[in-house]
Amino acid sequence: MDITKIYRRRLIPAECILLKDDIIVDKNDEFIVTKWKTINPKTAFSHGCSCYFLNEGIKVSKFLRDDGSLVYWYCDIVDYSYDESEQAMTVTDLLADVILYPDGSMKVVDLDELAEAMARELITKEQMTVCLRNLDHLLSIIYNDRFDRLQARLNDVDC
User: Which residue has the higher pLDDT, 137 or 66?
Assistant: First the structure.
């Protein structure tokens, strides 16, 4: 799979944008690593890097301040599709997210949006099933102290 473009598709709000400024720094059949600057200016963070785990339906991002210090790890539950003719991957955000803070605390967020997407039929039953299974898989990794496996792909990236 030769990917040269990545699109981010959101269900709420409905949008699909080309991540034209993201830089692909590493890729193989199991993952894609990118580095990026925020699309819209933020006060809490300015840049970071992400690893798309293609076989696990997880995107792990490292959000950083201007000085390079870690704000948090942000984990999206996602679904991937590939357009060979365009060499493009579309990453659909399935709404459920997990945030891991430097102090070791954690939050599972946006489950209300996931419920809203289901109620409004913005997400299919199959996508909901994938989302919940991948969220459970991610939480199992975290609870079993194996999140370092996911972090490792980004620890050596000059974000």
Answer: 137
